[in-house]
Every structure is written in C-alpha cells, then in structure tokens.
Write a sequence for this structure.
C-alpha cells in the first residue's frame, strides 16, 4: 500500500509553483516587477514596496516604502471612514 | 530495524541505570519523540510537584525517524514539568545530537532524582556512564560541548547541555546543542540545573538499519525536490527564519514595545536583508538541504570578532521590535549572549521589553534598576540585562523568574503589562488582526506558542478550495474555511489540524519546516506513511498517524488538567480585546479580537477536539484515543 505511486497533494503541487512574482501584501494581487527593480508600486492598490531578489529571478518584499506607507494607509483608512 | 533502540531510566540520586525495550504496542500508539515523551511524563511525574525539585523528571528523546533516510530527521525532544508555567514542559531541537543518540543505542532517556555534584551522562553503544562535570560547571554552552569532546578525546561526540542560565535556575533557561540549536521554551534548562545535570553526550557506531533502503532513498529524493523547490525554502536558504519579517512587519503584525505598537517602522538596519550582509555562510542540521542557520562574525563593539550562528526570527523580535532597538549589532550580540548563556531568546526579550514598559510607566524607577536606564531602544541596557538575567544580578534576578513570578515580586499593577498565556510570553507577533493565530496562542498546551498549533499559512490568502484540500485530509472536514486571515469562521479547525500535524511531526523527529508550517505545499500525513514504511517497515495509514498526533496532544491536555489547568487558562490578556492595533496596512489597522467571537471560537475548538465546555477531554474521546486508562505504567 505504501509503495503506491499515487501522487499526494504536496507532490502534485510542485508543478503549480510560481516564480518571478510576489503578492502585494495589501490587495494580494500577484505582481511581476521588472528584473532587478528595487521598488515597485502595485498597479492595483497603489502600495509601494521595497524589493529584494533572493535569486536572479525571484523577488520578495523587503518592506514598505516607509515615506509613502503611512500617508497611503491614513488615506485609505479615511476612505473607509476610519481614523 | 530503526525501532530497536532502548529506553533508559537513570536515577541521579542513586546512580542506578536501567534499560528496557520499547514495546511495539507503545510505538504504534505514540511513534516516539514528543508523543512518547508525553506518555512518560504523565506516567512518571507525580501531580503538583515543585518543578525544580528532585521529584521532577527530565526526559530526552529522538523521534522515530531520526537518523534515517528521511529528510531533516534531526530532531531531539526534551520534556519535564515546566518551572516557568507549572504545566507541561516540552521543547524540540535540531542539530546532530538526536541521530548520535540513536546510533549510541537509545531513543528515550528518563532522568530522575538529583545528583550531589555536577554530572554529565555519556551514551556510547548501548552503555551509559554518569561522569563528573565539576570542571564544566560555570562554563557556557559552546565551551561545555568542546570540553566534553576533549575529555572523551573524540570530536565526533555530540552533546546537549545547559549554560550558566540553567545552572542559575533561570526559569526560561534552555537546552543547547551545537553553536546555536536550542530546545528553547518552557525552561527545561533550569530543571537540568536543579538536578546538577550539566550535559548529556552521545557517540555511537550502532547502525540504524533501514527497512527498505533503496525505496527510502528514492522517496527522499522526491521529498527533497518538493521541499527545496518551494519559495519559502529558497528564501530561508538565504535569510533563515528572519525572512518572515518582510511580510509581518510590512503588514503590521509585529509586537513592538511590549505590544504598544505593531510595526517597527524605518528600521532598515534590522531587516533580514541587512542582516544577511553580515553572514559568512549558512549551516544546516542533520539530513537537511535548506541550511537555514546563518553564520556570522560580529563586526563592531565589545564583541567584535565573535563567531556565532543565527539569529532566528525570534531573536529579531527579542532584541529589536519588542525593545524598540533598530541596530542589527544589538540583535547579533543579543543572539550571541542567549546562545552563550543558554537562555530562551523569546522569553528574554519579552521580559526585558516588559521591564522597559514598567520603567516608562514609572512602576520601575532608577532606584529599582540600580541606575540602569530602561528607555526604549537603549541598546546597551538590553545587552546588560541579558547578562544580569543569566547571572541573576539585581533586576535580572527578578526578570529571571518569568512573567508571573516577576510580576508578583514587583507588584503595583505590573502583571497588567505582561503579554503572556499560561505564564509563558508571546512571540513578538501581534495576533490582534488574526483570530486564528490568536486562538492558537490562547489554547496552546505550553503557553503562548507559535510552534505547536499556529496556522501560519492562514496569512497567505490561499484559495478556499486549496485550504479544503489541506485541512480536509486525512480526516474529512466539511465546515467553513476562509482565505481572509481576519475572519473567525473555520479557524478553530485550522488550529486543531496544525496542532495534530505538529505533534505528529515531532513524534517522527522531522523539522517543522518540512511540513505544513511556513509553506502550504510541504509533506504531511500522506507522505509520512511512505517515510515510515520505507525507513522502519511499519505500516501506518495517514489516519493512524493523525490519531497518534491527536493522542499525543490530548495527553498534553491531560497533564495540564492534572496540574490545575481549566478554561480560564485558554485566554488572551486584555490588550488583545481592548486595544486596537494602531499601525500597519489598512487591512489590519484598528483590528482587535472580539471577545464574543473569541468565546465562540473557543467553544468550537473544544467541541471539535472532543472536549467538554471546560476543555476537559470527554470520556468517549479518551476511549477513542486509548487514553482511558492513563497512567497505565507500561513504560
């Protein structure tokens, strides 16, 4: 039984892996920044992120662009009727 | 067979040593590692004992697959009644000790009594010696291991040990092996210190026979492909566990200044990418391809030129966000010192940040601190306090007592500022916007805990269809599951699934990073059936492994209930409910945990576990899990 080669969920999911993308942490849109970009503004929600490349083709979010982050967050909260 | 390793009972008072085989019936119920340790703890620790008395029992084990051809099968588990919480003491560590312990012939050690003088144990090819450790007492955790190798004239000897913090009975002293591997939580280092047990060393040449070696190798290749191709693993290969910071701090899920804030803003120097610039290489544990442990040499200040490994994500919280520091040198030095002394980094940072808030509020003054300035972000004070805690000097002596006892000593409303569950401090995460993670820390058996039930993938916004595939296997689940980490629905089941998954992986002795913890596409119950069969020849279904996990976790609950745990302990401190998070993205800003919804989650959690409304396992649940006759005294 355990010698069976039926693929498990985890084994199957290897094929579905994405590279060259990250998800915007605000709107969760998958975005593909230009190669070697160090900053990227999400085209869907407008949040600006600092980017770090952990391999030549694979980016990740390093952190927000702080000078834009607080202002944008306040604006969006105001739009929602928050503080 | 990989199962023919023994259990040894060592009495440090009488110096009597007894070894036994582990019956197959017990193996099938608990596998090994943490699960079987829970059984031993429940059977060998009498209720209501003082955790720092000779009546406590120190248990050490290697998981069922440790040292086999299963990937990352390195884990050692340690257990005792916790001197920090008074509930279950349990911690897990990687490195190379576990495989060596199995090669020396042992799977489980049950250490009782108290030695008159400092001693260490030496395990070698089926034999155990109790050796004098007077010359090791007072030595740090790295030097201790090196001195044992020299004494035994063998650089292949691997050791678990305590540093000075354990000797000084700091209630969150840990057990260490290699340069930085730590069985960090619940203060088991203090239990060893109370027994005058400085270390356990092992060297063995007893081969671990693999049942189906070729199949095991072939299958492990698949597992490795699956693991190393995941983005989370590739990122960890570069940044270690620090990588988590990018998402959590950007979103506003990082506990800062002892829970006053939820984001460390404009602190680029402590970002993982900045710390990565300091690394001179990476190191891995036995059988692991990820190598998530950074190697570094401190470049500046008093500790310039010192080599160490890490820091983990927890140290980034402990010596940056929680205490308001923004210098990576402080993180690297702080990490070095907790390694050196053998302290739980998380608890250390949390206690320092609590003291800083008390100082800010005027509850502690310079008179109490002997002139030490505890202002947020004071790097020198943070480093000084680590020394003081480990050596129990001045204010450090109070902080060494852990959250509840320290607050009792200081008084004046100070407990109100402790961020803890069951007397154990929280990770530097802010769970107010994430009900699943909040429930996880509230109900966890060890106290506030991110390693025993955290549905970390809840933060990934995964499609519900995919969540159903993960959380609907190996037992069916047709309740709600939602992609939104701010929701309350379906979260109790996610927490339970993770609790049982983590318990099972700890029984096997495989690293949590190789299961569904930080990556959703990692091996779990189905893959483990094959790993167990190819490596040991034992046949288990995925559901049977689930039952082992469920049984082990329920045994932890039984231990805690016997020590006085009730529903009131499965709770969060008031700021979770009363103080909205002030910073971060608009998706989290203003969020807090709704008391009524939390209560509903807790009720659901108990019901799904088969526990009554007070959190006590129902008789039918105990019967289903073969726990209705505990303590059964089979081992």
């Amino acid at each position: 039984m355990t010698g069976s080669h039926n693929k498990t969920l985890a084994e199957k999911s290897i094929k579905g892996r994405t590279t060259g993308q990250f998800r915007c942490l605000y709107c969760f849109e998958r975005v593909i920044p230009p190669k070697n970009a160090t900053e990227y503004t999400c085209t869907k929600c407008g949040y600006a992120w600092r980017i770090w490349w952990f391999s030549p083709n694979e980016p990740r979010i390093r952190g927000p662009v702080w000078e834009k982050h607080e202002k944008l967050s306040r604006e969006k909260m105001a739009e929602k009727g928050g503080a | 067979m990989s199962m023919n390793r023994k259990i040894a009972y060592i009495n440090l008072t009488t110096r009597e040593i007894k070894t036994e085989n582990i019956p197959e019936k017990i193996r099938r119920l608990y596998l090994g590692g943490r699960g079987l340790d829970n059984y031993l703890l429940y059977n060998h620790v009498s209720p209501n004992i003082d955790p720092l008395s000779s009546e406590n029992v120190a248990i050490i084990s290697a998981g069922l697959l440790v040292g086999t051809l299963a990937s990352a099968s390195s884990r050692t588990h340690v257990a005792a009644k916790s001197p920090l919480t008074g509930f279950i003491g349990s911690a897990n560590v990687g490195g190379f000790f576990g495989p060596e312990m199995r090669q020396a012939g042992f799977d489980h050690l049950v250490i009782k009594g108290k030695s008159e003088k400092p001693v260490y144990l030496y395990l070698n090819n089926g034999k155990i010696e109790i050796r004098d450790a007077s010359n090791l007492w007072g030595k740090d955790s790295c030097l201790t291991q090196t001195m044992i190798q020299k004494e035994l004239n063998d650089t292949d000897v691997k050791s678990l040990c305590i540093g000075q913090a354990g000797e000084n009975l700091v209630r969150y002293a840990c057990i260490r092996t290699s340069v930085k591997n730590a069985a960090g939580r619940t203060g088991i280092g203090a239990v060893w210190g109370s027994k005058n047990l400085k270390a356990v060393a092992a060297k063995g040449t007893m081969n671990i026979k693999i049942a189906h070696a070729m199949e095991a190798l072939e299958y492990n290749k698949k597992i490795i492909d699956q693991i190393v191709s995941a983005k989370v693993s590739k990122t960890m290969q570069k940044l270690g566990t620090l990588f988590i910071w990018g998402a959590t701090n950007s979103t506003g899920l990082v506990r800062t200044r002892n829970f006053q804030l939820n984001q460390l803003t404009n602190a680029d120097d402590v970002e993982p990418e900045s710390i990565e610039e300091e690394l001179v290489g990476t190191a891995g544990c036995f059988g692991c391809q990820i190598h998530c442990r950074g190697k570094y040499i401190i470049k500046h200040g008093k500790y310039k030129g010192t080599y160490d490994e890490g820091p983990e994500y927890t140290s980034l919280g402990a010596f940056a966000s929680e205490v308001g520091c923004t210098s990576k040198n402080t993180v690297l030095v702080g990490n070095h010192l907790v390694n050196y002394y053998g302290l739980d980094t998380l608890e250390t940072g949390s206690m320092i940040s609590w003291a800083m808030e008390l100082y800010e509020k005027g509850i502690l003054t310079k008179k109490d601190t002997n002139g030490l300035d505890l202002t947020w972000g004071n790097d020198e004070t943070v480093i000084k306090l680590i020394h003081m805690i480990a050596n129990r000097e001045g204010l450090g002596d109070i902080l060494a007592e852990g959250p509840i006892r320290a607050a009792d000593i200081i008084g004046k409303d100070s407990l109100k500022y402790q961020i803890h569950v069951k007397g154990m401090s929280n990770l530097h995460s802010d769970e107010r916007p994430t009900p699943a993670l909040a429930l996880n820390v509230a109900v966890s058996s060890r106290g506030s805990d991110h390693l025993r039930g955290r549905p970390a993938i809840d933060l990934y916004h995964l499609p519900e269809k995919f969540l159903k595939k993960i959380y609907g296997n190996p037992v069916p689940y047709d309740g709600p599951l939602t992609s939104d980490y701010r929701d309350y629905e379906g979260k109790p089941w996610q927490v339970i699934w993770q609790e049982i998954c983590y318990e099972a992986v700890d029984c096997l002795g495989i690293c949590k990073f190789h299961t569904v913890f930080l990556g959703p596409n990692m091996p779990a119950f189905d893959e483990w059936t094959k790993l167990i069969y190819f490596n040991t020849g034992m046949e288990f279904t995925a559901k049977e492994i689930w039952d082992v996990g469920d049984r082990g976790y329920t045994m932890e609950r039984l231990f805690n209930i016997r020590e006085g745990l009730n529903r009131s302990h499965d709770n969060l401190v008031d700021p979770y409910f009363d103080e909205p998070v002030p910073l971060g993205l608009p998706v989290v800003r203003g969020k807090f945990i709704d008391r009524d919804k939390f209560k509903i989650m807790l009720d659901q959690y108990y019901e799904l576990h088969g526990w009554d409304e007070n959190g006590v396992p129902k008789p039918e649940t105990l019967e289903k899990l073969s726990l209705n006759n505990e303590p059964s005294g089979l081992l």
About this structure: Helices of chain A lie at 9-12, 66-79. The interface with chain B takes residues 1-3, 8-11, 13-14, 17-19, 23, 25-26, 28, 47, 49, 52, 54-55, 58, 60-64, 66, 69-70, 73, 76-77, 80, 82-83 of chain A (CB under 8 Å). Chain A has one domain: 19-79.
